């Protein structure tokens, strides 16, 4: 009898121990841990509870604090898998060790595999057991959250179809060339500005970013009136328009978006709090980013170079892994407004930060669609940057890149890097260049390639003082290098940024 009681007691203790340990969504079956660096495992338990973590030959025991939180650190891991990770009586199955990348931004990062170019073929062959996917559910938070909603999934035709196309193509290319498991974490939200993804302390402590908070104060103050108008005027008008359209056999108009206000996804720091902060304890190699459309306005385009750079530094400070790699996509060609070239320039300026890289997409956009479907080239170009700069493989990762320009008689000599065998894509004349004299009036120009320089001139400008390339929202331009990678837009007379 005593033996039965003792067994029941041990069973009850084991059940209590198992129930006491709670883990964040990221620490679950099919997770991928970052190789080559100390890895944090964390969660909650009963205050004072001993928590034992076992993985890849390591055993670490820690004690939960008074608030129930605990953190265990594993020494740098070696690429492997599938393995099991144990935390007391909890077993995490199918754990891989390899490279972990976070993908974030707005709708072009969120753009799904099921709508990308050649999607049926791409999805059908997306059977990659060494690539695991994690999608973060949309959420806005007033304060930094402790956890996200999401699950790890093995990459398959079923799981990949609703995943980020850019991040998948990025990860697929890396996995094929690195030959290690790949963990891809997607945390994005269409139509959102960079300030939503930046922590509040980062926005508050930089005077040059005060404009984001000032704007939101006005939004908040105006919200009650805007919401009343939306409910009592806009929506009734929309309902009538829908009814009229149906009666006439026409397509009903889309429902108008609700006004910005409390809980809106554009809230400064709201998405950082809800969708980035809970990821920060998780070890990553780096991040990829596709965003900027929502900041391509007169009010934000110049200031974006400061805002975007501050966001990158903010994330790096939070992860405390040093200047981890951060690769981003420059806005593609699209018939939009005069501020798109300035936003692209701001993105280029961000390359001044260490361990950053930019995928130029000025040649793969769609003039009439802000969501171009060619996401294969976008993911590939991000992956080339990672292969060259993070993994030190001998691959070209950028197209011809502006260095400097000097007047030379009746021409401008433009010095370029990544400039091997510069040429027009498909042959013929190089297009997209303009020169201007002291009057600042730009005229179309002709281009000659001389080694790693370009000689740019126009019969309409006798003494050129400035040169620019692809300076339009949807420019006609075709300069590439030997690797077929496109040159990015630039101008030599860039105004000083305050």
Number of strands: 23
The CATH architecture category of the largest domain equals 3-Layer(aba) Sandwich
Number of domains: 3
Helix fraction bin:
25-40%
Beta-strand content: 25-35%
Question: Could you name the ranges where pLDDT drops below 50 across 5 or more consecutive residues?
Answer: 1-18
Q: State the shape.
A: globular
Distance between the termini: 82 Å
Description:
The chain is of the alpha/beta class. It folds into 3 domains: 1-199 and 269-397, Rossmann fold; 205-267, no CATH class; 401-491, no CATH class. 28% of the residues lie in helices and 25% in strands. The chain has 11 helices and 23 strands. It has helices at residues 2-20, 107-110, 119-124, 157-160, 165-178, 200-204, 210-247, 270-276, 304-319, 340-349, 376-390, and strands at residues 32-34, 39-44, 50-55, 58-63, 69-74, 80-87, 90-105, 128-135, 152-155, 182-188, 286-290, 326-329, 356-359, 401-408, 411-417, 423-424, 433-436, 442-444, 446-450, 453-457, 466-469, 479-480, 490-491. Strand 11 (286-290), helix 9 (304-319) and strand 12 (326-329) form a beta-alpha-beta unit. The longest helix has 38 residues, at 210-247. It is globular and about 80 Å long.
């Amino acid at each position: 009898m005593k033996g039965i009681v003792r067994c029941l007691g041990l069973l009850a203790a084991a059940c209590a121990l198992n129930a006491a340990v709670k883990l964040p969504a990221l620490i679950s079956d099919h997770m991928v841990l970052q190789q080559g660096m100390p890895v944090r495992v964390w969660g909650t338990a009963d205050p004072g509870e001993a928590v034992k973590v076992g993985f890849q030959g390591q055993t670490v025991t820690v004690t939960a604090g008074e608030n129930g939180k605990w953190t265990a650190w594993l020494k740098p891991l070696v690429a492997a898998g599938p393995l099991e990770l144990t935390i007391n009586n909890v077993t995490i199955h199918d754990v891989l060790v390899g490279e972990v990348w976070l993908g974030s931004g707005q709708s072009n990062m969120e753009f799904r595999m099921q709508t990308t170019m050649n999607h049926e073929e791409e999805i059908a062959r997306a059977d990659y057991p060494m690539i695991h996917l994690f999608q973060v559910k949309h959420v806005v938070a007033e304060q930094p959250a402790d956890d996200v909603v999401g699950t790890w999934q093995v990459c398959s035709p079923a799981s990949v179809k609703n995943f980020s196309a850019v991040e998948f193509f990025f990860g697929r290319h890396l996995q094929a060339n690195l030959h290690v498991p790949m963990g891809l974490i997607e945390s994005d939200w269409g139509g959102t500005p960079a300030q939503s993804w930046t922590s509040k302390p980062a926005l508050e402590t930089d005077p040059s970013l005060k404009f984001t908070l000032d704007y939101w104060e006005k939004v908040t103050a105006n919200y009650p009136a805007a919401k009343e108008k939306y409910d009592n005027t806009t929506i009734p008008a929309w309902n009538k328009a829908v009814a009229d359209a149906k009666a006439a056999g026409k397509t009903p108009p889309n429902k108008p978006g609700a006004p910005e206000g409390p809980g809106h996804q554009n809230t400064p720091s709201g998405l950082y709090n809800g969708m980035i902060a809970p990821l920060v304890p998780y070890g990553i190699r780096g991040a990829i980013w596709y965003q900027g459309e929502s900041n391509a306005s007169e009010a934000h385009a110049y200031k974006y170079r400061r805002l975007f750079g501050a966001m990158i530094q903010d994330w790096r400070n939070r992860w405390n892994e040093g200047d981890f790699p951060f690769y981003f996509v420059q806005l593609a060609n699209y018939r939009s407004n005069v501020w798109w070239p300035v936003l692209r320039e701001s993105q280029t300026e961000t390359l001044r930060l260490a361990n950053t890289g930019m995928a130029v997409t000025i040649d793969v956009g769609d003039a009439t669609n802000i969501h171009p479907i060619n996401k294969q080239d976008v993911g590939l170009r991000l992956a080339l940057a990672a292969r060259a700069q993070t993994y030190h493989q001998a691959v070209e990762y950028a197209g011809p890149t502006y260095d400097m320009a000097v007047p030379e008689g009746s021409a401008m000599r433009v010095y370029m890097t990544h400039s091997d065998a510069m040429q027009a894509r498909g042959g013929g004349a190089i297009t997209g260049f303009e020169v201007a004299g002291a009057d600042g009036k730009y005229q179309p120009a002709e281009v000659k390639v001389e080694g790693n320089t370009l000689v740019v001139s126009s019969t309409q400008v006798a003494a050129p003082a400035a040169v620019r390339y692809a300076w339009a929202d949807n420019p006609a331009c075709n300069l590439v290098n030997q690797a077929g990678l496109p040159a990015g837009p630039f101008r030599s007379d860039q105004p000083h940024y305050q």
